[in-house]
Amino acid sequence: MTRAQKDRLTSDLRMVCMRVSRRVRFEGSGDLAPHQFSVLVRLEDGPLTPKEVAEIERVSAPSMSRTVNGLVERGLVARADDPTDGRQVILSLTPEGRRAVKETRRRRDLWLATRLEHLTDDERALLVEATALLERVAAE
Q1: Which structural domain range is residue 47 located in?
Q2: N or C: fewer beta carbons within 10 Å in the chain?
Q3: CB contact at 8 A, 36 and 64
Q4: CATH number of the domain that 60 lies in?
Q5: CA 44/CA 26 separation, integer angstroms
Q6: Percent of the chain with pLDDT over 70
Q7: How far apart (Å, rounded) are the C-alpha atoms in residues 140 and 137?
Q8: How far is the first Cα of the chain from the last one, in angstroms, to the nearest whole number?
């Protein structure tokens, strides 16, 4: 493969991965914005402080406060005082928040599954191989 071909592959692959990712995020989100869903997913494994979530998400504290406030207002996230540090707040998913995560994932998977149904068996087999390769690329 020539340098120009490698450059083209790099650019094309980056762009198509971004488009697929964007479509899955927005097509399957319903009334939950992608950044809100991301916060819910971060809280799935257990409670975190707003600062911890902001650091993980790489956003400012004020931006995370706005996102968390919206999620609390919708009943998807609960706030509680930190039992060891009264200055801290702990965020956790509510049962409704857990349902929202499950439903959003279901809708996203359905969106993608619908597109995959239009492919041939050979094309789907090729995507199985490509998925394994992309996993390797992402892991490096």
Answers
A1: 3-139
A2: C
A3: no
A4: 1.10.10.10
A5: 20
A6: 99
A7: 6
A8: 21
Sign of the torsion formed by the C-alpha atoms of 58, 35, 13 and 120:
positive
Distant-in-sequence, close-in-space partners of 9: CB < 8 Å, separation ≥ 6:
1
Distance CA(92)–CA(47), nearest Å, equals: 5
Region of 56 (left: φ > 0; alpha: ψ -120 to 50; beta: rest) is alpha
Confidence at residue 28, expressed as pLDDT on a 0 to 100 scale: 66
pLDDT tens sequence across 35-91: 999 999 999 999 999 999 999 999 998 999 999 999 999 999 999 987 887 788 999
Q: Give the chain's largest Cα–Cα span.
A: 61
Considering its fold, how many domains does the chain have in total?
Answer: 1
Q: Name, in order, each residue with C-beta under 8 angstroms of 90's C-beta and a sequence gap of 6 or more.
A: 47, 48, 49, 79, 80, 81, 82
